[in-house]
UniProtKB/TrEMBL annotation:
Keywords: ATP-binding, Carbohydrate metabolism, Galactose metabolism, Kinase, Nucleotide-binding, Transferase
EC code(s) of this entry: 2.7.1.6
Domain of life (superkingdom): Bacteria
All residue ranges annotated as the Galactokinase N-terminal domain in the record: 3-36
Domain GHMP kinase N-terminal, residue spans: 74-158
Family: Belongs to the GHMP kinase family. GalK subfamily.
Annotated Gene3D superfamilies: 3.30.230.10, GHMP kinase, C-terminal domain
EC main group: transferase
Keyword Kinase among UniProt keywords: yes
UniProt-recorded name of the protein: Galactokinase
Any single Pfam family the record assigns to this protein: GHMP_kinases_N
SUPFAM superfamilies assigned to the protein according to its UniProt record, in alphabetical order: GHMP Kinase, C-terminal domain, Ribosomal protein S5 domain 2-like
Species of the source: Actinocorallia libanotica
Length: 359
């Protein structure tokens, strides 16, 4: 038994650092992602190949901490599938990617989701996609050691072409929001800056949010209803900033959905920029190359823009009228050149389908 599967990367249109606060997110899947060619094997081994690297992992006794590096992601999926009671066996998996790794477009979630689909299909295990989201998240949290939420895995497994996915990260309920961009385009600017979510700053943000929720006496920051009253209860200015971001970001997701439903796609630009400023000033996860890209792009005619993903590195998305694309790229390029930075790379973000079997 063999086959080929593909799981996409994502951009999150809006709703950043809300998933682990049990809030709202609005991602869409990209055409780019991870493709895996897989075949069953009966010796209880996972043989993993990627870009000239090869790792062999024994499925028996697989547990968090046993596998390190890139192989922890696919091996973690096999481990998490077993923990969840899905009986899969050995396989040879060959991964290829057309997603720039570390660019904030979620290549690690795509790697997990491609593995989850391949292993369950190879062993004819019926699994609900929402359960596979949790399996993939468990692989990332426990086996790869990254305390991420469910945004990226949900986007990779649940999105549909031409739609964004409105996901309530508390209930797991989702709905597909048509993304009719009209004469607008979503342009990804890869700032070229790289870092790993394991470096601790992402985990720090999570811990700050949990501490704020504890001090406010709510289960999660999702439950903050009266922002002004809640801010007055917190004495730590850092926690106040984090709460302000999370609460207003959830409102921006709802407002963005309203604008999309009303066909006012251009006005979503202002939401993106407001989200970026909040991530920069309140959540403090932006980085200079992202700030310069957003500012230069908006001055150069973009409708708005924001950093995407966990922060500190990776990509920015810009909402731009098609006719303004050359001017916006020129403005960003000139701002980078003026600071002596190398030119960023660009990719159009086309809302695409979620993970699927290709053959
Ligand atoms: C990263 C994480 F993996 C997501 O779960 C999410 O928290 C995101 O950062 C920030 O919105 O991509």
């Amino acid at each position: 038994m063999n086959g080929v599967w593909h799981a996409p990367g994502r951009v999150n249109l809006i709703g950043e650092h809300t998933d682990y606060n049990e809030g709202l997110v609005l991602p869409f899947a990209l055409p780019q992602g991870i493709t895996v060619e897989g075949e069953r094997r009966d010796d209880g081994l996972l043989e993993l190949h990627s870009g000239g690297l090869r790792e062999t992992v024994e499925l028996a006794g697989l547990a968090p901490g046993r596998v390190r590096g890139w192989a922890a992601y696919p091996a973690g999926v096999a481990g998490a599938l077993a923990e969840a009671g899905y009986l899969v066996g050995g396989a040879t998996l060959r991964f290829t990617s057309d997603l720039p790794s570390g660019s904030g477009l979620s290549s690690s979630a795509a790697l997990e989701c491609a593995t989850a689909l391949a292993l369950t299909d190879l062993y004819e295990v019926k699994a609900d996609r929402r359960d596979l989201v949790k399996v993939a998240q468990r692989a990332e949290n426990a086996y790869a050691g990254v305390p991420s939420g469910i945004l990226d895995q949900s986007a990779s497994l649940l999105c549909e072409a031409d739609h964004a996915l409105l996901l309530d990260c508390r209930t797991g309920m989702s709905s597909r929001i048509p993304l009719n961009l009209g004469d607008h385009r979503v342009l990804i600017v890869d700032t070229g800056v790289r870092h790993a979510l394991e470096d601790g700053r992402y985990a720090d943000r999570r811990a700050e949010c949990e501490e704020a929720a504890r001090q406010l006496g709510v289960p999660a920051l999702r439950d903050v209803k009266d922002l002004a009253a809640s801010l007055s209860l917190l004495t730590d200015p850092v926690l106040r900033r984090r709460v302000q971001h999370v609460v207003t970001e959830n409102h921006r997701v709802e407002a963005t959905v309203g604008l999309l439903r009303a066909g006012a796609v251009g006005d979503v630009g202002a939401m993106l920029t407001a989200s970026h400023l909040s991530l920069r000033d309140l959540y403090q996860v932006s980085w200079p190359e992202a700030d310069v890209a957003v500012e230069a792009a908006v001055k150069g005619g973009a409708r708005g823009g924001r950093m995407v993903g966990g922060g500190f590195a990776g990509s920015v998305i810009l909402l731009v009228r098609r006719a303004a694309l050359p001017a916006v790229r020129e403005a960003v390029g000139a701002a980078y050149a003026a600071r002596g930075w190398g030119a960023p790379s660009y990719l159009e973000a086309v809302p695409s389908r979620g993970a699927a079997r290709l053959s």
